[in-house]
Every structure is written in C-alpha cells, then in structure tokens.
Automatic annotation (TrEMBL):
Taxonomic source organism: Paraflavisolibacter caeni
GO cellular component: plasma membrane
Transmembrane segments: none
Protein name: Biopolymer transporter ExbD
Listed InterPro entries: ExbD
Upper lineage: Bacteria, Pseudomonadati, Bacteroidota, Chitinophagia, Chitinophagales
Length: 175
C-alpha cells in the first residue's frame, strides 16, 4: 500500500539525515470513490417516481361521441377474470359479443388489445380502450390492465364506472 524508499548515503561524505521518499498507492481510494459515486447515482435513480401520468377530465366538460369500430371495453371482475366487448354495449348484447378473458400472457387481455389494433390497421392509434373496474376487482387487476395499455402503446384509454346493464351481464357471460 505504502512504500518507503531509503537512499543510501554516498561514501566519503558527511552523512546528513535524509528524508525518505514515500510513495502511496491510491488505487483502493479511487476504487472506493467510484463505488460511492455509483451508489449515489443508483440510489438517486431509484428514488425517482416511476408512476405513469393519468389525466382525468373535469366533470362538466362536453363529451364527444365514440366510434363503435374503434372502441374496446374491458370489464374487470373479481378473481382475475376480465370480460370484454367490441363497439357499443347494445350491439354486444344483441350479438352475444361479450367474452371472457384473463391476464394470461399468450391469450389474455394483451393479446386481445393487439388483435384489435391489427384489425384497425392504419387506424390502430384511434383505438379507445374503456376500462371499467367492478366492485369485486382489485387494485392489482386495474394496474395489470394499465400495464397492458403501456405495453401495447394504447394512446387513448379511459377508466369509467360500469353501467348497470354491464354489471348484470357479467356473471352470465362466459365464452
């Protein structure tokens, strides 16, 4: 770590007290400095908020009509089950278009969102996802659906209360 190098006195001359040359190896101190810098950068990046922004509209703003072809409604029920339908509620009731899904990676709600985006083709950015959690759903289920929104790059989505017709149809649906 530290070395002291003594120089021998030349022969035949007076001996003076010579000062030793000290050489200190600073490598461990440099390593410690970089470790501290890395630690502080890591802890400051972990303390930053990783939450996504959720924009809510005021209640008195006028609403616009939603196109039935671009709408996908997701009803989050208890027990990790999700019911979904395309378009308007009235059309889904007429055509028995309410389906059951889950959070499965291969066949779950993420796959349904991707299929809807493929069906819309060039208008996939116009997809409007209506997320309607029920009283039986958990906060984790809502976060999982919002994760799928971020994963599948859905630009337009809304969190809404389910209608009474949707709530009454949930236990009887099951394709």
């Amino acid at each position: 770590m530290a070395q002291i190098q003594l120089q021998p006195a030349p022969a035949g001359k007076k001996r003076y007290m010579s000062r030793p040359h000290i050489r200190i190896d600073m490598t461990p101190m440099v390593d410690l400095g970089f470790l501290l810098i890395t630690f502080f950068i890591f802890t400051s990046s972990m303390s930053e908020s990783k939450a996504s922004d959720l924009y809510l509209t005021a209640g008195d703003e006028p609403t616009s009509e939603l196109g039935a072809s671009t709408a996908l409604t997701v009803l989050i029920s208890g027990g990790d089950s999700i019911y979904y339908y395309n378009g308007k509620w009235e059309d889904a009731v007429k055509n028995n278009g309410m389906h059951l899904s889950s959070f499965d990676v291969a066949k779950g709600i993420g796959n349904i969102i991707r299929n809807k985006q493929k069906a819309l083709g060039d208008k996939s950015a116009d997809l409007m996802l209506l997320i309607k959690p029920t009283q039986r759903s958990t906060y984790n289920n809502l976060i999982n659906v919002l994760d799928e929104v971020l994963i599948n790059n859905v630009k337009k989505y809304a969190i809404m209360e389910p209608t009474s017709g949707e709530l009454s149809a949930i236990p009887t649906a099951g394709n």
